[in-house]
């Protein structure tokens, strides 16, 4: 049996504590040069795509802007369009919310990016929507979970209708006959649904990919169903081997219901990594990075999100407090809410007691995600094994440093994946759909 | 004092039959890259990029079903961003509509364009009054535009759209200022990345929308990217005077230029007044335009004055209007790249001969080229 090929993408370091800004090597999160550095590094490694996250309101804790993590980022599609000018093959994926956008405008922006990048655009469809974020938008307000996905599904269907509305040969530009667009080649769009009503004609020819690649990042049952129906790629937190295999099997199984084949949806968990010349050195590096990611005040801030009250008087290097979480409204805004805070607190307390962990050690333990730790050879082997074991089709790599955090991975791990015969030596196609084998 | 010179880019040029006389592929990045690099070689202040939230039409509202003219356009903000890394000095001023868009997204998009271009972003703020475009959004029902109406200000629908546009620009300006320049402190000792006392809520609440803020994007390099507007009548003059840094006006003679300047100046002592002209340049300009008119089946009509002639003759017109108080010009080339190249390679030299045009870029930001200072954030405490 042939080995599955590994897909890899690079996540521009974001505005949570995964990104370490206290390191002297940490560069600007907003200068275009940082984006160029990461994009060119990813392209040098022949990665599938660069991924940008989104947040439409600055996160707040206890009613004030959270100041412990990196804050501030650009508008995704605008930066990606600029990056299209300095890269040739790398896919360009932007996260854009369906709740605070309108299909005609966003479909047009995504089509523009696909044209201007010669077929490298991807859209990570998110539905994050709460009254807090809504305060920045005309639409305002809150949508409940079921409505959010219903709206997102209608949004994606309508976008694809708009992208398909110009026949592939619509633009004749025949100077002899004077025909710019072929008669009847631009279709009318008439859509009336629960969330949108759009009537008229689209303003762009069909783009190089036809449909920009659609990524989905939700994890709920509705999110998985949405992905099975509409997405080309899933960006998931399920990076650990057994957990990943369960998730992979569950989502791939859902595809048949929509008449889709397993290879038409690529599952790519977000993962971090820590390298070293020996396994011991890599483990030390990994531990040091975790301590940088969870500083004393960050540890307390995590505790406050669960306990829902001010905990600044507690010593982060000391034991967990005896008090119970405040059952009233939480103190954190602009993050995915923690569902049952009392249960999370109980679990944390049990774990801290069992292992004798301080507050900070506990937060380091419970907030980590899948990390590939080891020598370059070991990390290449682990990645390959995860993919061959059907725990993933590949990974979205989340470096902890901007903008140089991917350099060592590309220089030392990618060549070994190539030696294993599971990663491309060069791009074989022009479009992101080609890289992702989505044909 | 230097005369400011911009070009307005749209499709294959401003004549609807222009595409038939050029090899331009308006849906390729290469076409636009060639135009903007040519404009930069000519040391122009900036380029504008046209846009709308619906296909082009010869009708004031709705589709005309014509197949012999360019139809389709890129999103102008993304196109400007695509061009930013290919240039280093010229300003990039995309059109973005204020009517159906989210003011927060537009503000952050323009701020991002300013970041990726190193301080060369502008925004041409434009309303969309067309009922056909409103139907692309399905949120509001607009009355059909009356092409016979002369007095915009008498139409409450249009008045509202301009009031909304003014609110959208106000929101953008507050969001651009919502991060003070020194908000990012990266203080390792206290673990604080930002000084949150230097981040501010925009707290805008108006008739059409409310926006809380602060921006998700740090303050753009120019502080305030340059806001521009096209205006033909009293109501848009008032919008421009209250909201914009640059206004494009459309006089058809030097007398009209004098009158428009007087009217706008009475509304704002600060705003930069640019005049728009559609230009066909060269010894054979009139013949070229006539040939295009024939191909299109109609004589070219425009809101702006249409000039045909040599660059020397055009320079004389610009100098005459300059004496009427016009500070700059936004030229709309009839055919691209042909008429653009006459501007960058001929007109600029002609103007330089009169001592009114730059020999090298004197600034790295668009505000710098326009002689606009970089403003402090409105929220910064004066110490």
UniProtKB/TrEMBL annotation, chain A:
Q: Which InterPro entries match?
A: Diverse_substr_monoxygenases (IPR051260), Luciferase-like_dom (IPR011251), NTA_MOA (IPR016215)
Q: Which UniProt keywords apply?
A: Flavoprotein, FMN, Monooxygenase, Oxidoreductase
Q: Which Pfam families match?
A: Bac_luciferase
Query: Does the entry feature the keyword Flavoprotein, yes or no?
Result: yes
Q: Which GO terms describe its molecular function?
A: monooxygenase activity
Luciferase-like domain location: 25-389
Q: What is its EC number?
A: 1.14.-.-
Question: What is the designated name of this protein?
Answer: NtaA/DmoA family FMN-dependent monooxygenase
Automatic annotation (TrEMBL), chain B:
What residue stretches are annotated with the Luciferase-like domain? 17-292
Keywords, sorted A to Z: Flavoprotein, FMN, Monooxygenase, Oxidoreductase
Entries under InterPro entries matching the protein: Diverse_substr_monoxygenases (IPR051260), Luciferase-like_dom (IPR011251), NTA_MOA (IPR016215)
Q: Which domain of life is it from?
A: Bacteria
PANTHER family under this entry? ALKANESULFONATE MONOOXYGENASE-RELATED, C2H2 FINGER DOMAIN TRANSCRIPTION FACTOR (EUROFUNG)-RELATED
Protein name (Swiss-Prot/TrEMBL): LLM class flavin-dependent oxidoreductase
Q: Where does this protein come from, organism-wise?
A: Nonomuraea harbinensis
The lineage is: Bacteria, Bacillati, Actinomycetota, Actinomycetes, Streptosporangiales
């Amino acid at each position: 049996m042939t080995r599955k090929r590994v897909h890899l993408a690079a996540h521009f370091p974001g505005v949570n504590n995964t990104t370490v800004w206290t390191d002297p090597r940490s560069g600007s999160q907003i200068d275009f040069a940082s984006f160029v550095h990461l994009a060119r590094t990813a392209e040098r490694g022949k990665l599938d795509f660069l991924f940008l996250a989104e947040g439409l309101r600055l996160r707040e804790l206890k009613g004030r802007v959270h100041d412990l993590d990196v804050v501030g980022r650009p508008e995704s599609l605008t930066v990606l369009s600029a990056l299209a000018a300095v890269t040739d093959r790398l896919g360009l994926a932007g996260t854009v919310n369906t709740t605070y956008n309108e299909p005609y405008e966003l479909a047009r922006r995504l089509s523009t990016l696909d044209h201007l990048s010669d077929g490298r655009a991807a859209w990570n469809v998110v539905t994050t929507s709460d009254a807090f974020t809504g305060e920045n938008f005309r639409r305002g307000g809150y949508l409940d979970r079921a409505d959010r996905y219903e709206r997102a599904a209608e949004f994606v269907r309508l976008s694809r209708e708009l992208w398909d509305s110009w026949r592939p040969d619509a633009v004749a530009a025949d100077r002899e006959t004077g025909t710019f667009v072929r008669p009847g080649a631009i279709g009318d769009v008439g859509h009336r649904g629960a969330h949108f009503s759009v009537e008229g004609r689209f303003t762009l020819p069909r783009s190089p990919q036809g449909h920009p690649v659609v990524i989905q990042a939700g994890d709920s049952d509705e999110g998985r169903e949405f992905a099975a129906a509409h997405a080309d790629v899933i960006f998931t937190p399920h990076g650990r081997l057994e957990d990943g295999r369960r998730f992979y099997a569950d989502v791939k199984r859902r595809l048949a219901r929509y008449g889709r084949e397993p290879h038409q949806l690529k599952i790519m968990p977000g993962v971090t990594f820590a390298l070293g010349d020996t396994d011991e050195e890599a483990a030390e590096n990994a531990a040091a990075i975790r301590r940088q990611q969870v500083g004393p005040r960050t540890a307390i801030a995590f505790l406050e999100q669960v306990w829902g009250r001010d905990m600044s008087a507690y010593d982060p290097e000391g034991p967990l407090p005896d008090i119970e979480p405040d059952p009233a409204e939480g103190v954190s805004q602009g993050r995915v809410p923690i569902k049952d805070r009392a249960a999370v607190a109980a679990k944390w307390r049990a774990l801290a007691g069992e292992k004798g962990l301080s507050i900070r050690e506990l937060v380091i333990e419970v907030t980590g995600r899948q990390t590939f730790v080891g020598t370059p050879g070991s990390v290449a082997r682990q990645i390959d094994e995860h993919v061959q074991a059907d725990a993933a089709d590949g990974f979205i790599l989340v470096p902890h440093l901007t903008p140089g955090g991917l350099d060592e991975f590309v220089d030392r791990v990618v060549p070994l994946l190539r030696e294993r015969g599971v990663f491309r030596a060069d791009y074989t196609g022009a479009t992101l759909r080609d890289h992702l084998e989505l044909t | 004092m230097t005369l400011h010179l911009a070009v307005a880019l749209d499709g294959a040029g401003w004549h609807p039959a222009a595409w038939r006389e050029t090899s331009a592929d308006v849906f390729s990045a290469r076409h636009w890259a060639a135009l903007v690099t040519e404009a930069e070689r000519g040391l122009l202040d900036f380029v504008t990029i046209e846009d709308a939230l619906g296909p082009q039409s010869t009708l004031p509202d709705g589709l005309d079903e014509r197949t012999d003219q360019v139809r389709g356009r890129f999103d102008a903000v993304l196109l400007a961003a695509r061009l930013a890394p290919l240039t280093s000095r010229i300003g990039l001023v995309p059109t973005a509509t204020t009517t159906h868009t989210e003011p927060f997204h537009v503000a952050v998009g323009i701020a991002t364009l300013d970041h990726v271009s190193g301080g060369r972003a502008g925004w041409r703020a434009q309303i969309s009054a067309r009922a056909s475009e409103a139907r692309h959004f399905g949120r509001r029902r607009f009355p059909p535009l009356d092409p016979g109406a002369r007095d915009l200000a008498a139409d409450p629908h249009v008045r509202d759209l301009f009031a909304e546009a003014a609110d959208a620009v106000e929101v953008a300006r507050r969001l651009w200022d919502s991060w003070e320049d020194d908000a990012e402190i990266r203080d390792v000792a206290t673990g604080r990345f930002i000084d949150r006392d230097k981040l501010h809520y925009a707290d805008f609440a108006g008739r059409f929308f409310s926006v809380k803020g602060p921006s998700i994007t740090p303050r753009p390099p120019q502080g305030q990217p340059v806001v521009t507007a096209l205006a033909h009548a009293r109501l848009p003059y008032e919008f421009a005077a209250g909201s914009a840094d640059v206004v494009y006006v459309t006089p058809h003679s030097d007398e009209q230029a004098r009158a428009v300047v007087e009217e706008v100046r009475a509304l704002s002592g600060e705003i930069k007044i640019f005049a728009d002209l559609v230009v066909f340049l060269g010894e054979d300009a009139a013949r070229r335009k006539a040939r295009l008119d024939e191909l299109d089946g109609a004589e070219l009509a425009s809101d702006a004055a249409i000039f045909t002639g040599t660059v020397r003759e055009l320079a004389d017109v610009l100098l005459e209007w300059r004496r009427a108080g016009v500070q700059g010009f936004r030229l709309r080339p009839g055919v691209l790249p042909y008429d653009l190249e006459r501007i960058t390679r001929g007109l600029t030299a002609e103007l330089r001969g009169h001592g009114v045009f730059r020999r090298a870029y004197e600034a790295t930001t668009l505000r710098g080229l326009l002689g606009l200072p970089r403003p402090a954030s409105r929220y910064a405490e004066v110490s």
